[in-house]
Amino acid sequence: MILHADQSPLDLLDTYLEALSDALGDGTDALLPIPEPLVPTGEDADGKDDELLSWALGRLRTIPRQPKDDFRLEVGSLLAEFRSRRSPWNAAALRLLDDHYTFVATGPRRHEDWAHDVLAVMHRSAPDPRGWIRLDWDRTNTVRHTMPAYPFDPPVASHFPDILHRLDEEAAVAALAVMTEEWQAEPAPVRSRPDRDAVLADARTLLGRYGPTACYWTNAMAAASGPAPDFLTSGLSGSRSHSFLTGEYLNGLDLLDDLGLIAVNENEVGVFWSIGAY
User: Fold this and answer.
1) N or C terminus of the chain: which is more exposed, having fewer CB within 10 Å?
2) Of 274, 240, 256, 257, whose CA–CA distance to 165 is shortest?
3) Are 198 and 144 in contact (CB under 8 A)?
């Protein structure tokens, strides 16, 4: 577990809970001690950070350590709830995409050619500027020891203009919404779900982070002819794309389908990706 001196107490707790959950999942017997800096500081103006920190630490201390599997599940549940309470953006991300093979991450924009910043996000070399949640099913995948960007094998930055297409905002919302579907045999596409409006609202919350001047790009071929393809009608399974995924068969998985959405503003780049694995 790597802690940084400049991390806020909430960021430290997030790092600690994630490391504890990982250690328990790996079968590590020793419990990680709670870092000393994790105490309410009294420095935040409205006291909400201290309140959230006290709540999370209090709940952690009351969770029985045995049976170990139950403890691991409770720590995971605490981490998810803690992240949801930190920000509405986190909560929307978890509701929308946490149960699907997706990659959701934001990094700082440091280049005029933002493709370089997107590549940094895909390689996990750029932290979220606001410390908000990152959804990454392959965060601890051992494949990444030799292929750091897995599941991605993205093109070089100079090739991005050849395989990405502009989207208008509503099409971007719809693209994000259909990432809640299955790539095969989806029983309830977003367009016919009773919670359709709630799904679209969460998608708008996620994209709202990037502001009214954000530009959106996708690898979906349907956007080659215009910035407003009807993702809701076609659904996820009807999406064809220029793949950003590795073609290697690793750990028993073929990665055959993907739909990506990139949000760009002056300060940040957001990367949202749905991955079809078989």
Assistant:
1) C
2) 240
3) no
CA angle, 33 as apex, 48 and 71 as ends, to 5°?
Answer: 80
35-61 tens-digit pLDDT = 665 655 555 556 788 899 999 999 999
Contact yes or no for 144/150 (Cβ under 8 A): yes
- pLDDT digits 0-9 by tens, 232-246: 999 999 889 999 999
**Quick one: CA torsion of 75, 277, 140, 86, rounded to 10 degrees?**
-50
* Residue of 130, 156, 102, 104 lying closest to 263 (CA atoms): 104
pTM over 0.85: yes
Render the burial of 52-63: b for 16+ CB within 10 Å, e for the rest.
bbeebbeebeee
Tokens at residue 199, please? Answer: 């799904």
Identify the bridge partners of residue 257 per DSSP, sorted by sequence position: 276
